[in-house]
Design brief:
With 368 residues, the chain is an alpha/beta fold. Helix content is 42%, strand content 19%. The chain has 10 helices and 15 strands. The strands form 3 sheets. A 7-stranded mixed β-sheet has the order 12-10-9-8-6-7-15, with helices on both faces. Strand 1, helix 2 and strand 2 form a beta-alpha-beta unit. The chain is globular and about 90 Å long.
């Protein structure tokens, strides 16, 4: 059968078009398998920078375990860099290791030097960084922070309930708005229950200062302190308080081997990281993510067996009020110099808290 010239050209064009389509399809498949796999691998990996060892009790171990559990739920691979100091060089080296392992999202848990972290983040524009801090550090990072004010207030309620001597101790690293908030919230809780109680404050000089923390506990013992709390990392204070026979409210982890622990202020890192990984990774804004007692990402867990029925009812009432939005820093509040900081019917706003630089009435600094 004779085929016209036009029909022959049409058939040739069809065959050529089919060949081109096949070649393009093969190229796409090869590209997906060769390059897409690596891109997907990177998207499924999370980097975590820890200031200490992931097995060390307290801040590092609880964060590592929480992040690992969150990654297990979501199917991410967790990459960890331990013992990362807050200076720019250490952060750069740790981040480089994670980036070489294809991490596209990195959580920085050492808030000691936010400026150093900011510079590191700026040098890696294709990596999304999350930094635990309470002040802005620029567009390069998403921020997350823990609101400890309410759990510290409730810790003060428990301390006020349990003290028999009216002398209550508190250990914190150094004077800063963050720690003034925690100490004052604790003091307000103590004096809500026991208006004449004294809160003895000891500055340790750092997040983990074994010698100073040990000294603080024994100074408290000499001053008839029978209940104490602290804003420190590590296990020095719980161990020393147990030896000294002082009841204590711990940070981060429960200590089952002592009869002197009455509560634990803790963060549900698994819940916090799940919330962030599910929500913030899809966002382009830079609003800080706050962990609060309202959603139980930060909380206080009392040893209820240590409380009488009346004491438990009192604590649970205070807890309920906080859960309903009660402002810890509200009503008549005076500092230790007698200056009124808040009046009847007033509340100190959240915007003013980062400027807090005073100690509440009833707080006395000792030991340093």
């Amino acid at each position: 059968m004779n085929v016209s010239k036009d029909e022959d050209l049409a058939r040739r064009f069809f065959r050529l078009n089919a060949c081109v389509s096949v070649v393009l399809l093969v190229a796409i498949v090869v590209s997906v398998f060769q390059f897409g796999a690596e891109a997907w691998k990177g998207q499924r990996q999370i980097g975590l920078l820890l200031a200490g060892e992931k097995s060390k009790a307290g801040w590092n171990r609880t964060q590592y375990r929480g992040m690992q559990e969150a990654c297990d739920v979501l199917g991410y691979e967790l990459l960890v860099e331990e013992n990362v100091q807050g200076d720019e060089t250490s952060c750069h080296n740790a981040v480089r290791e994670l980036v070489e392992k294809q991490a596209k999202v990195i959580f920085m848990t050492n808030a000691a030097s936010p400026e150093a972290m900011k510079e590191v983040a700026r040098s890696c524009p294709h990596v999304q960084f999350f930094s635990v801090e309470s002040v802005p550090s620029g567009y390069e990072m998403c921020r997350y922070a823990i609101r400890y004010v309410e759990p510290c207030y409730l810790a003060g309620i428990l301390a006020g309930i349990r003290t028999k001597t009216g002398q209550v101790g508190y250990v914190a690293p150094y004077a800063s708005p963050e720690f003034y908030q925690a100490i004052n919230a604790f003091a307000l809780g103590v004096r809500k229950v026991n208006p004449e109680a004294r809160i003895l404050l000891f500055w340790s000089g750092g997040w983990e200062n074994h010698e100073k923390e040990e000294q603080a506990v024994w100074d408290f013992k000499a001053a008839s302190v029978d209940v104490m709390a602290y804003f420190q990392d590590g296990e020095t204070i719980p161990a020393a308080a147990d030896r000294a026979g002082i009841h204590f409210i711990s940070m981060h982890e429960f200590h089952p081997d002592t009869d002197y622990e009455i509560a634990t202020v803790k963060v549900d890192w698994k819940k916090l990281y799940l919330n962030m990984l599910r929500q913030n990774l899809r966002k382009t804004d830079r609003e800080a993510y706050w962990a609060t007692i309202l959603d139980r990402t930060v909380d206080i867990a009392p040893i209820l067996s240590a409380l009488s029925a009346r004491e438990r009812a009192y604590f649970e009432t205070e807890y309920w009020e906080v859960q309903q939005g009660k402002s810890v820093f509200s009503g008549e509040i005076y500092d230790r110099n007698g200056v009124r900081r808040c009046g009847t019917g007033e509340a100190i706003s959240n915007e003013a808290l980062p400027q807090m630089n005073w100690l509440a009435r009833g707080v006395s600094v000792i030991g340093n």
